[in-house]
Every structure is written in structure tokens, then in C-alpha cells.
Amino acid sequence: MMLAALQPIQQQIRRAEIAHRRTENAVNLLAVSKTKPASLIALAYRAGLRHFGENYVQEALAKQACLSAFDITWHFIGPIQSNKTKALATHFDWVHSVDELKIAERLSVQRPSHLAPLNVCIQVNISNETSKSGITLAQLPQFVAEIETLPNLALRGVMAIPAPQSTFNAQREPYRQLVTQVNALNHPLLTEFSFGMSDDLDAAIAEGATWVRIGTALFGARN
Q: Which of 5, 33, 61, 110 could form a disulfide with 86 if both were Cys (CB 3.0 to 4.6 A apart)?
């Protein structure tokens, strides 16, 4: 299923880039491999994918050990627990879900000196849902100022998971709000927009996504 699904997803991304006047290859496909076995990630790698997103630290570490021979860029996209920051700082290339200064400070302190600064995105709770992590839009300017002082982090952009919507225009609106707020900051480091999943891929690309996180459409229903 995965290999058959990959090309249609890549074609869908390219069609959306064209339709919304995005630069070719402006949108990166992040394969969300949570709950999927290392063997399936290996198949996806051989099909050309290099970026994989995981939500659960221990599960991800086990897969990384199995796949150490592969040149994979690992992204953490789940909620962050304080007792997992050392593992994240040591074993991941990107963390998309930073939403507390305490967590950011721990990631910076615990990033090994022989590694490049850890790429991080700030998670914004764009729909103000109590069930989801993330700062508010109003908190974004202050949080950006705090994150960029941390020496071993490379602030790259923002991440969001808005509430599901049933129409294309409704899906676009929260992303538009977030991009407008980020652009108003006119901050040179905030260039990455990690948003859009299987169900709202086109809307996310229309509003400026640079990383789309695709799991179900690529690998099938989660285990």
C-alpha cells in the first residue's frame, strides 16, 4: 500500500504547488511513521523518502537503532515530556512541537556539542483547543524572542494542528491566521511552516506549508 500511495501523494503536492503558485519543491513530505515498523520505514526510504516523523520517543529510538545504516533525518512531532528531552536532543534532527520555555532550555542544554544546533519549530494552538498542546498566537512574539537566545537550538518556524474542518475554505482559515501573524513579525529565522496532514493537504499548501506531515494516506490506518 505504501509504495503504491507515494507517487499519488507526491503528485498531489505538486498539483497544489502549481495551483497556488508555490515554487516547485517548496513543500517537503514528512512521512509520519508512528506505530509503523522499521521494515516499512526501510521500504519508504528505498522509495526515496528521507524525512520521518515520530510521536513516541521510546518507539522512535528502537527504530533508529534498527535503521542506523540509513541516512534518515528524524523529526519529533509529538507532545514533549521533560524526562524525554535528553533523548530528543541527542537522537533527533528536528523537533516540531516546542511550546514551553522550560522544555526549550532543556533541549538546548542537553544537545551534544558535537552535533549541529537542533532544528525546532514552535507549536501554536491555532484553534485554541484545550485538548492540544501549543502556545497562543498572542504569545508567539515573546516566545520567539526567548527561543532565539538559546545557543544550541536553531529556530526554524512554526507548527500547528488546527481543529478539523469540513470545507476547503474553512481548512485554510486557521493556517492563514498563523502565517499572517508570523509574517507580521518579519523574523528572518521563521521560514518553515509545519502544517497540513492527509485530510487538509491542499489547504495547507495553499496557505504556505513547507512541511506536510502525511501518515494515514501514505502508510494506511495507524496500527
A: 110
Torsion angle of alpha carbons 65, 115, 83, 59, nearest 10°?
-20
Q: How far apart are CA 6 and CA 106, in angstroms?
A: 36
> Torsion-angle region of residue 128: left (phi > 0), alpha (psi -120 to 50) or beta?
left
Query: Do 207 and 175 contact (CB within 8 A), yes or no?
Result: yes
This prediction has a pTM of 0.96
Q: Give the whole-angstrom CA distance, residue 99 versus residue 155.
A: 12
Range of the domain at 141: 2-21+29-219
pLDDT in tens, 90-130: 999 999 999 999 999 999 999 999 999 999 999 999 988 78
Domain CATH for 121: 3.20.20.10
Q: What domain count does the chain have?
A: 1
